[in-house]
């Protein structure tokens, strides 16, 4: 079975490389040293006429669910993705032909261990939506409730696991062969992406997210979260209440109902800001298809597969940034940005400070109503990219969410101003940070930490001294950045050893040929062993030359 799985992954890997080369990314394949897998073909002349960002998007869409989801995750990371690609990835289409209804019904019965007739009195064969991971069907339970049944595509997990294995291999090769990409930790990125995607594939987690949002907004009648029917849920199926509303950007229909469009924009944004600044648990995909308006202008949220979380530490760092911006303290803003980033050791903090000062001057006299969160986030991420800062992934997601909220708000109301709405939430965060209760709590915790340190210090010192006495104290040194040198030396050593063997074959064969009395059998007076040695040496030498030319290096 393992051999079959490895062969399946190899075929998939070759297909992925073929798609990337056809879309003009053969340079990347060369850099990753993967041309042994792909030895023929060339980029499509027609595709090469399109911008690289569009070609990448088309390649990801062609490669299916894993790569579409990776593109969506990268579309939240303006700090590590070039701006043209960042913008284009937000256009990723996650719509595919639906799985036939008879197959879907069979999957539901297999998952729930029940006949469809025992669960539903109605089941619509035509899906409401069909995406790369799953599709949604409208139905009615035997108890009369209208529901939406979200079912995962068959055999999806096997495909995703193969793709994640391949992506991990590609990330390892990228860190090994492309030095400039190491600051972005591609292996860690793939690991985090794999974790997020596996979570998204577990529909029971999404159902629990819905329950948590429902609890968070239990006392807020302006927000509605669909009910989950747990008895008809598994990790591949969610059965939830079917909500009949109007899509938030369907302005004509909202106006026909007499709804106040500007009030809806404000209420929707405030609901999101509560999630971010109060609950610290927010909906991570606020595009218009996931937000519906119910009677009395109630906001209903859908699709909870992607969520963001702000830990206490993250919130504290965000506080620092907000306070620094409010005070227009350039040095403090730089320190706060560094605190929420991974910084390259070669980054010049002086140059970073100069760029932030320039950014602060740009926004110094601008009025709140003229400030665009999307533009501000873009300017900050551009600085991050220029100075090789990698922002915390949750804060990157938060930045995209705020930009999307602003975009939807301005579709409803051209005068929509999210910054004004953020201000009271941010001020509340800052007030809480310096409230007597919080200061007392932090002082108490700090005192406890110091007390623990003092209590453990004698024992730690004694342990260190005992190790010195017994000769067991060990100091480790780690060389960083020598992987390519070691790899090159290993290749050079292997080729040198191979060349020595070839030379030995030639010399020994020549000595056998030179003997007056033939050694072993001979044909037409030519010793067979000598001739065979020459032949093996010639074939081996030819292989070595081809290998060196193919890799374009003698190392």
Count every helix, treating DSSP H or I runs of 4 or more residues as helices.
21
Rounded radius of gyration (Å): 31 Å
**Which spans of ≥5 residues are poorly predicted at pLDDT below 50?**
none
Oligomer: single chain
Throw out a few tags for this protein.
five-stranded antiparallel sheet, 555 residues, globular, four-stranded mixed sheet, alpha+beta, 21 helices
Please characterize this protein's 3D structure.
- The chain is 60% helix and 10% strand.
- The chain has 21 helices and 15 strands.
- A hairpin with a 3-residue loop joins β9 and β10 (298-301).
- α8 runs antiparallel to α9 (186-201) and α13 packs across α18 (418-433).
- The longest helix has 35 residues, at 436-470.
- The radius of gyration is 31 Å and the shape is globular.
- The protein starts with a helix and ends with a helix.
Structural topology:
Layout: H1 2-22, H2 26-31, H3 45-48, H4 52-63, H5 65-74, H6 83-89, H7 101-112, E1 120-123, E2 129-130, E3 134-141, E4 146-152, H8 156-177, H9 186-201, H10 203-216, E5 223-224, E6 237-241, E7 246-247, H11 251-256, H12 261-279, E8 281-283, E9 291-294, E10 298-301, E11 307-309, H13 312-327, H14 330-339, E12 341-343, H15 349-363, H16 373-386, E13 389-391, H17 393-412, H18 418-433, H19 436-470, H20 483-514, E14 522-523, E15 526-527, H21 528-551
Parallel strand pairs: 5-10
Antiparallel strand pairs: 1-3, 2-3, 3-4, 4-6, 7-9, 8-11, 9-10, 12-13, 14-15
Helix pairs in contact: 1-8, 4-5, 4-6, 8-9, 12-17, 12-18, 13-14, 13-18, 14-15, 20-21
């Amino acid at each position: 079975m393992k051999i079959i799985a490895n062969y399946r992954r190899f075929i998939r890997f070759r297909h992925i490389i073929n798609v990337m080369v056809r879309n003009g990314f053969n340079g990347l394949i060369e850099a990753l040293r993967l041309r042994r897998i792909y030895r023929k073909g060339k980029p499509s002349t027609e595709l090469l006429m399109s911008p690289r960002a569009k070609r990448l998007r088309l390649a990801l869409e062609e490669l299916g669910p894993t790569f579409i989801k990776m593109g969506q995750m990268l579309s939240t990371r303006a700090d590590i993705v070039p701006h043209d690609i960042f913008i284009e990835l937000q256009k990723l289409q996650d719509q595919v032909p639906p799985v036939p209804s008879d197959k879907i019904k069979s999957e539901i019965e297999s998952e729930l261990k029940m006949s469809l007739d025992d669960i539903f009195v109605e089941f619509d064969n035509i899906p409401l939506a069909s995406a790369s991971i799953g599709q949604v069907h409208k139905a009615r339970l035997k108890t009369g409730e209208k529901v939406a049944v979200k079912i995962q595509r068959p055999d999806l997990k096997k495909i995703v696991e193969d793709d994640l294995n391949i992506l991990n291999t590609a990330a390892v090769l990228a860190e090994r062969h492309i030095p400039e990409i190491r600051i972005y930790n591609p292996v860690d990125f793939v690991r985090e992406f794999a974790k997020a995607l596996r979570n998204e594939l577990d529909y029971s987690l999404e159902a629990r997210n819905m329950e948590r949002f429902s609890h968070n907004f239990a006392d807020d009648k302006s927000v509605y979260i669909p009910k989950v029917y747990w008895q008809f849920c598994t990790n591949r199926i969610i059965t939830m209440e079917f909500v009949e509303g109007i899509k938030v950007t369907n302005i004509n229909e909202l106006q026909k109902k007499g709804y106040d469009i500007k009030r809806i924009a404000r209420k929707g944004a405030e609901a999101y800001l509560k999630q971010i600044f109060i609950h610290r648990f927010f909906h991570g995909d606020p595009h218009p298809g996931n937000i519906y308006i119910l009677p009395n202008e109630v906001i209903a949220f859908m699709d909870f597969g992607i969520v963001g979380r702000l830990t206490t530490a993250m919130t504290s760092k965000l506080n620092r940034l907000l306070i620094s911006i409010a005070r227009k303290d350039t040095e403090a803003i730089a320190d706060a940005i560094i605190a929420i980033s991974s910084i390259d050791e070669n980054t010049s903090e002086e140059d970073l400070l100069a760029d932030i000062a320039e950014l602060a001057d740009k926004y110094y006299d601008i009025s709140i109503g003229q400030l665009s969160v999307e533009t501000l986030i873009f300017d900050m991420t551009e600085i991050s990219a220029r100075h090789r800062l990698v922002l915390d992934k949750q804060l990157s997601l938060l930045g995209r969410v705020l930009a999307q909220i602003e975009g939807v708000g301005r579709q409803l109301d051209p005068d929509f101003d999210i910054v004004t709405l953020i201000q009271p939430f941010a001020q509340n965060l800052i007030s809480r940070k310096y409230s007597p209760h919080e200061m007392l709590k932090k002082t108490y915790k700090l005192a406890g930490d110091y007390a623990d340190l003092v209590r453990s210090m004698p024992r730690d010192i004694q342990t260190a001294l005992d190790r010195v006495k017994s000769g067991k104290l060990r100091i480790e040194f780690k060389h960083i950045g020598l992987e390519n040198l070691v790899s090159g030396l290993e290749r050079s050593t292997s080729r040198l050893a191979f060349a020595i063997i070839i030379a030995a074959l030639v010399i020994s064969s020549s000595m056998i040929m030179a003997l007056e009395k033939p050694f072993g059998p001979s044909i037409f007076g030519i010793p067979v062993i000598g001739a065979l040695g020459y032949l093996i040496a010639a074939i081996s030498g030819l292989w070595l030359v081809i290998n060196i030319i193919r890799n374009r290096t003698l190392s």
